């Protein structure tokens, strides 16, 4: 049979993919390309979906489609067939061949049903894991699986079944005494049951005798009771009053022996038992009293271990915390040291701020001045002083900027005298030449103009100077007012800072910088004062802490050591305190135990007193019941006897009342009867006989009671019939175990014989075919594969070209791993041919089976497969492209490449 084409509509990563498969197909593709999917698709084509559940089927496409595939087949006879499989809610498959159509559901193809799926995967569909499996198991197991499982798919290996039958038979019975088996356990139980049967039979015989004796006694008792009843009836009817009289006489005799019945009644039921109980209780109480006394002595010793110093130390509440106080003192000392360093830093800062703000060195008296200063007020006054100074300077500047007014300049006298003098000269010269008079007139006008200008300029200048003087006087007043305000502001700052040695410049012109320096100085002073106060507080706390620790140590006689060392003594005191606490706690526990023991002693004393009183009371009651001299023990025995007589007397009186219920006063009835009662020899004989009967009835009843008790105990013993039944059951089980052992042995021999005949029928053909394939795949290096006989399951051997036999066992070092793989492949191919004999030859699927073979073995193996390709379709899978192409060349075909699955969502 050959798969010509495979249509994968939806199978794993393949969607709508069609593959044409030749007689020898080589499928090449990288990892994850779908080789494993195609490998399982071919198997599914032949045998159906597994598992047949869409949710669990591993090759259900993630694209939402249901698994579906089709294949065209060419059968060995030349006929064609077609199969289509789908995994819907349930598997569905259609098979068409020779014009016939058949619904397969999930059954194998009709042409492949001679080999089941499991056997197909083990023989025809080989992967690299199948080849490696040979390395890890004995080859006899492989031979068993391949050659011993060629029957039905449901049939287990015959040798495995035979071994299980052998083990089961051994569990039923075995000749030797090794191990446990059912027959031996049943035999042991049988021995125990037979021992119990022997004991039960002996007891049963004893019970039979007792039962016979009881039957005899019961008859005797019945006879005696009947005789006594008859006799009593005759006596009652003939001498009722006489009997009453005799009963009264007997009661009187008992009363006479009793003495004082009330005194005897006060003795109780059994004074001897009461006396023994009192003595026993006395012994117990005395023993307990001795134990309690010893315990009291021990607890007192524990209590007295505590000294007054221990109690004083434990009572001192400060002693418990002395170690913590010492540690706290150390912490306070450390804090004092830190406060001292902080005080030094604050003083250094104060000096630095004082140097920046004061003209002299710092004195702590300056702090009082700084404490009186309010920073806001200082800043306000300094700002006011600075503002006033600035205003005064502004006024002074404006005063200085006030200049005399610039008026028109008066012409110098030369401008007046020179023109006049020249004009006079020209006038004089005009006598000589009259045009000069014109020039002289012009110069006269010039001189006149110059005089007029000087008059005007003088008037304007005087007015300007008057205005200037008035403005200057006003600005001088403003300057004086600003100066006054500046002095007042400076005075306010000076009064506020009075007592501080300020620099003259700062005192004369205080400003914001002075306020800042003074405020910084004030802050430094406050920090210094705080650090100084903190240091003083730390020193005071350290003194108090150390004084407290030293006082506690001194109270308990410990030397605190040097002034600065408070570590050793507090630890010693703490150790003493722990020890004292343990002793005090032990003493308190002893005190509590002592109180309990004391109370117990009191209780015991009370019990002893009560017991002594009870003994005295019992002795007094004995003395009252048995007056007179005599040893105490004899009198106690007499008292016990009288108590028993009293009980008898009271019982007889009750019996008399029961026998004569109609008689209200028995003595009156006897008195009324008088002395004419019949008392003959016959009556005496009847009385004697009655007494004898009563004694004999009592003895018989006592013996019957004893026999009833013995019989009741005897019934608790196992019944002989039950034991015999169990023994019979055990014998039947032992017989069944033997028969089961025989059946299992017969079955084991039948299975082994059937397996031997099956192997004889099939192994020669398989080994012959395997030898031919082995010669092909090894290139003639190994020519024969055979099974060694007489070795249990047999050992698989190979014969090389030189005739040497070599073992194929996986643990043997005679063959290499590659050669064993070749033997394994040849054996598989032979089994496949054997299984296909008379049937369709199924395709052979090989996935990377040659990957671990060297090149020589690969070529030899492929040549062997090439000769097989004409009879059987081969599909080889590999992820190695070069090796795939080489396989395709050797097999005379083209490789089928799988670049990868189609796009899948």
Concise account of the structure shown:
Keywords: Coiled coil, Membrane, Transmembrane, Transmembrane helix. With 905 residues, the chain is an alpha/beta fold. It is built from 25 helices and 14 strands.
Structure description:
- It is a single chain.
- Helix content is 67%, strand content 9%.
- The chain has 25 helices and 14 strands.
- The chain has a six-stranded antiparallel beta sheet with strand order 2-1-4-5-6-7, covered by helices on one side.
- Helix 3 packs across helix 23 and helix 9 crosses helix 18.
- It is flat and about 240 Å long.
- 25% of the residues are buried.
- About 1% of the residues have low confidence.
Query: If helices are DSSP runs of H or I spanning 4 or more residues, what is the number of helices?
Result: 25
Q: What's the total number of strands?
A: 14
Distance between the termini: 36 Å
Q: Report the oligomer.
A: single chain
Shape: flat
Bin the helical content: 55-70%
Return the structural class.
alpha/beta
Strand content: 5-15%
Cα gyration radius (Å): 72 Å
Largest β-sheet summary? 6 strands, antiparallel
- Low-pLDDT windows of residues: 133-142
Strands in their spatial order, largest beta sheet: 2-1-4-5-6-7
Mean pLDDT: 79
Which helices and strands, and how do they pair?
Elements: E1 2-11, E2 14-20, E3 24-28, H1 35-47, E4 68-74, E5 80-87, E6 91-97, E7 100-103, H2 117-123, E8 125-127, H3 128-136, H4 139-147, H5 158-172, H6 182-258, H7 261-265, H8 271-304, H9 308-315, H10 317-320, H11 322-357, H12 366-372, H13 375-400, H14 414-430, H15 436-496, H16 504-508, H17 512-555, H18 568-625, H19 632-659, H20 666-673, H21 681-715, H22 720-777, E9 782-788, E10 795-800, E11 805-807, H23 817-836, E12 844-847, H24 855-869, E13 874-878, H25 881-891, E14 895-897
Parallel strand pairs: 3-13, 3-14, 8-12, 12-13
Antiparallel strand pairs: 1-2, 1-4, 4-5, 5-6, 6-7, 9-10, 10-11
Transmembrane segments: 413-433, 439-456
InterPro entries: P-loop_NTPase, YhaN_AAA
Biased composition (Basic and acidic residues): 390-403
């Amino acid at each position: 049979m050959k798969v010509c084409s495979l249509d994968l509509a939806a199978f794993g990563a393949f969607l709508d993919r069609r593959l044409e498969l030749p007689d020898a197909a080589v499928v090449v593709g990288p990892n994850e390309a779908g080789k494993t999917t195609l490998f399982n698709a071919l198997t599914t084509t032949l045998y159906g979906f597994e598992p047949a559940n869409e949710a669990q089927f591993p090759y259900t496409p993630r694209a939402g489609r249901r698994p579906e595939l089709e294949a065209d087949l060419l059968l060995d006879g030349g006929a064609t067939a077609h199969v289509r499989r789908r995994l819907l809610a349930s598997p569905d498959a259609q098979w068409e061949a020779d014009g016939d159509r058949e619904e397969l559901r999930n059954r194998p193809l009709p042409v492949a049903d001679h080999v089941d799926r499991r056997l197909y995967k083990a023989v025809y569909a080989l992967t690299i894991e199948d080849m490696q499996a040979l390395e890890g198991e004995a080859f006899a197991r492989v031979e068993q699986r391949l050659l011993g499982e060629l029957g039905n798919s449901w049939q287990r290996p015959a040798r495995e079944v035979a071994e299980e039958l052998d083990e089961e038979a051994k569990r039923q019975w075995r000749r030797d005494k090794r191990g446990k088996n059912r027959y031996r356990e049943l035999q042991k139980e049988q021995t125990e049951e037979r021992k119990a049967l022997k004991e039960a039979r002996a007891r049963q015989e004893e019970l039979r005798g007792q039962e016979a004796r009881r039957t005899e006694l019961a008859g005797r008792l019945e006879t005696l009771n009947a005789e006594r009843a008859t006799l009593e009836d005759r006596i009652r009817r003939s001498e009722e009053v006489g009997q009453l009289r005799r009963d009264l006489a007997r009661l009187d005799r008992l009363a006479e022996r009793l003495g004082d019945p009330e005194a005897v009644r006060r003795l109780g039921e059994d004074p001897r038992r009461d006396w023994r109980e009192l003595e026993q209780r006395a012994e117990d109480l005395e023993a307990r009293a001795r134990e309690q006394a010893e315990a009291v002595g021990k607890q007192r010793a524990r209590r007295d271990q505590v000294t007054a110093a221990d109690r004083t130390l434990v009572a001192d509440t400060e002693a418990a915390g002395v170690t913590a106080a010492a540690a706290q003192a150390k912490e306070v000392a450390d804090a004092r040291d830190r406060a001292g360093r902080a005080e030094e830093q604050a003083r250094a800062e104060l000096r630095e701020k004082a140097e920046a703000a004061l003209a002299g060195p710092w004195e702590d008296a300056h702090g009082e001045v700084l404490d009186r200063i309010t920073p806001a007020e200082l800043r306000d006054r300094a700002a006011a002083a600075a503002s006033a100074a600035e205003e005064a300077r502004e006024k002074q500047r404006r005063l200085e900027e006030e200049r005399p007014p610039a008026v028109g300049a008066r012409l110098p006298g030369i401008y007046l005298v020179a023109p006049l003098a020249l004009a006079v000269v020209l006038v004089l010269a005009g006598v000589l030449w009259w045009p000069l008079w014109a020039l002289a007139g012009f110069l006269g006008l010039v001189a006149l103009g110059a005089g007029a200008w000087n008059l005007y300029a003088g008037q304007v200048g005087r007015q300007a100077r008057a205005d200037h003087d008035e403005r200057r006087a006003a600005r001088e007043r403003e300057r004086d007012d600003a100066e006054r305000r500046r002095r007042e502001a400076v005075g306010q700052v000076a009064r506020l800072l009075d007592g501080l040695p300020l620099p003259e410049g700062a005192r004369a012109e205080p400003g914001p910088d002075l306020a800042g320096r003074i405020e910084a100085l004030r802050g430094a002073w406050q920090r210094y004062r705080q650090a100084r106060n903190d240091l003083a507080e730390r020193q005071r706390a350290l003194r108090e802490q150390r004084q407290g620790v030293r006082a506690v140590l001194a109270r308990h006689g410990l030397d605190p050591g040097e002034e600065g060392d408070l570590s050793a003594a507090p630890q010693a005191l703490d150790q003493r305190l722990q020890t004292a606490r343990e002793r005090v706690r032990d003493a308190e526990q002893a005190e509590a135990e002592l109180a309990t023991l004391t109370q117990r002693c009191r209780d015991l004393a009370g019990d002893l007193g009560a017991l002594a009183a009870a003994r005295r009371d019992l002795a007094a009651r004995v003395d009252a019941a048995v007056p007179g001299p005599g040893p105490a023990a004899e009198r106690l025995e007499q008292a016990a006897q009288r108590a028993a007589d009293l009980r008898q007397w009271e019982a007889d009186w009750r019996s008399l009342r029961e026998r004569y219920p109609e008689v209200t006063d028995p003595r009156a009835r006897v008195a009324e009867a008088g002395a004419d009662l019949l008392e003959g020899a016959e009556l005496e004989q009847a009385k004697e006989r009655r007494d004898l009967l009563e004694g004999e009835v009592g003895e018989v009843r006592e013996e019957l009671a004893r026999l009833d008790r013995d019989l009741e105990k005897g019934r608790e013993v196992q019944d002989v019939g039950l034991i015999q039944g169990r023994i019979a059951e055990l014998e039947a089980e032992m017989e069944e175990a033997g028969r089961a052992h025989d059946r299992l042995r017969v079955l084991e021999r039948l299975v082994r014989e059937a397996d031997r005949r099956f192997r004889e029928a099939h192994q020669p053909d398989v080994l012959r075919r395997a030898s031919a394939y082995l010669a092909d795949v090894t290139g003639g290096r190994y020519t024969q594969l055979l099974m060694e006989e007489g070795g249990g399951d047999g050992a698989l051997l190979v014969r090389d070209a030189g005739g040497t036999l070599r073992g194929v066992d996986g643990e043997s070092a005679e063959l290499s791993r590659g050669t064993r793989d070749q033997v394994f492949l040849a054996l598989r191919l032979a089994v496949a041919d054997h299984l296909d004999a008379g049937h369709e030859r199924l395709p052979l699927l090989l996935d990377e089976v040659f990957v671990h073979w060297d090149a020589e073995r690969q070529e030899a193996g492929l040549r062997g497969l090439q000769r097989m390709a004409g009879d059987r379709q081969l599909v080889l899978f590999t992820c190695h492209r070069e090796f795939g192409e080489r396989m395709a060349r050797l097999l005379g075909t083209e490789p089928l490449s799988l670049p990868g699955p189609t796009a899948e969502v």
